[in-house]
Design a protein that fits this description.
By secondary structure, the protein is an alpha+beta fold. The protein contains 4 helices and 8 strands; from the N terminus they run H-H-E-E-E-E-E-E-H-E-E-H. The longest helix has 12 residues.
């Protein structure tokens, strides 16, 4: 790799969170990018995290966050590392979609308030 590290595909597929890496799409190809200590200021290719968010939809105890291709795991990592709380249980991420699981009784307004603290601009992507 760029820093001289090599790993098998099986290792990358099995341990991405432990290795603090995410798979991103760049120029039509996928590559793995190290994201140590994901925080509010996480950026990807010079853009703020919310720039890669296409939309947020809400249903019952779930939010569905649509992202640019390859961007979902980065956003999900930011949510999982920084917002685990009484209101947000966790996420499941694919390539361009994140399922955010809310605890019973969590309002849409409260969930979006929490997300906004870590992913500024996400409220603007909410489909009402």
């Amino acid at each position: 790799g760029e820093w001289g590290y090599s790993a098998t595909q099986a290792t990358l597929s099995r341990d991405p969170r432990e290795l603090n890496i995410v798979k991103v799409s760049q120029g039509g190809a996928y590559r793995y990018v190290s994201q140590p200590h994901a925080r509010r200021s996480v950026t990807l290719s010079g853009q703020h995290t919310a720039d890669g968010i296409v939309s947020v939809s809400h249903s019952a105890n779930f939010l569905v966050v649509r992202t640019s291709p390859g961007f979902a795991s980065l956003v999900a990592s930011v949510i999982d590392l920084n917002i685990r709380s009484r209101e947000i249980m966790g996420t499941i991420a694919g390539d361009d979609t994140i399922l955010v699981m809310l605890r019973d009784g969590t309002t849409l307004e409260r969930a979006m308030e929490l997300l906004e603290t870590e992913v500024p601009g996400i409220k603007d992507k909410l489909n009402i």
